[in-house]
Amino acid sequence: MLNKIVETKRQELQQLTLPEENNVERFSLYKALRSPNRPVGLIAEVKKASPSKGVINDAIDPVEIAREYEEARADAISVLTDETYFKGNRQFLIDIKKSVRIPVLRKDFIIDEKQIEESKRIGADAILLIVAVLGAEKTEEFYNKAEELGLECLVEVHSEQELSTLLERFTPRLIGVNNRDLATFQTSVENTGKLAKKIPPQCLFISESGIHSSRDMEKVKSFGANGVLVGESLMRAETPAKGIASLYGEVTVGY
Ligand SMILES: O=P(O)(O)OC[C@@H](O)[C@@H](O)c1c[nH]c2ccccc12
């Protein structure tokens, strides 16, 4: 499936038009995750659909969801901008950036340098670089390019092998362990435990995907994650605030 997504992205990039620069205030994702609002930081994701789950919640207004995430003290927002497989849109990020004052991560399949420039222009504070897509060498190349443009990076690995080839080349400041196997879509938070011990202590690290309960949260906290990246379970919650409260085992007051 990952190859299919990347192939589609390659075709879409032939029509890529770089937008005007969206002059926005920048917020640091690294800083936010170094001193999160809760013991385990939260990157809350705006995700309408996914290849593994189909439509998750198509009725939502992305800006409204992002504002409610911010109100519920998420530390950052992740915005899917892939249209074909996730029903995302780069316009969602442009609009969300105008409405929140916390870091915004662009969640997409970055396979070409042009997309790094594009991410900067739409106002992203950070971009996702997927080692399974880029390999360690290109990940480092894009990481440096992003830094030149003033963008931060969440460097995502799934397997121990990806992590070790990455660390042989360079040590990113922020690593994401994806609990989802992008080939089979199977998720297990145990994957975070498997990789956690191999992540250098100076790195910030995030557990991504398949976090649906306070039990999952407790587990990844015990593995030493600085934060989590959560989409589906928040997008399916009655309200973002209730979804976040239940993940952290907090009682929501009032109605
Ligand atoms: O919806 P979940 O299981 O909470 O997962 C969120 C996020 O980790 C997931 O959307 C994701 C992680 N890495 C990605 C790369 C591309 C697209 C999506 C992703």
TrEMBL record:
Pathway: Amino-acid biosynthesis; L-tryptophan biosynthesis; L-tryptophan from chorismate: step 4/5. Pfam families: IGPS (PF00218). Keywords: Amino-acid biosynthesis, Aromatic amino acid biosynthesis, Decarboxylase, Lyase, Tryptophan biosynthesis. InterPro entries: Aldolase_TIM (IPR013785), Indole-3-glycerol_P_synth (IPR045186), Indole-3-glycerol_P_synth_dom (IPR013798), Indole-3-GlycerolPSynthase_CS (IPR001468), RibuloseP-bd_barrel (IPR011060). SUPFAM superfamilies: Ribulose-phoshate binding barrel. Residues 6-246 form the Indole-3-glycerol phosphate synthase domain. It catalyses: 1-(2-carboxyphenylamino)-1-deoxy-D-ribulose 5-phosphate + H(+) = (1S,2R)-1-C-(indol-3-yl)glycerol 3-phosphate + CO2 + H2O. GO terms for molecular function: indole-3-glycerol-phosphate synthase activity; phosphoribosylanthranilate isomerase activity. GO terms for biological process: L-tryptophan biosynthetic process. Belongs to the TrpC family. This is Indole-3-glycerol phosphate synthase. It comes from Exobacillus caeni. The gene is trpC.
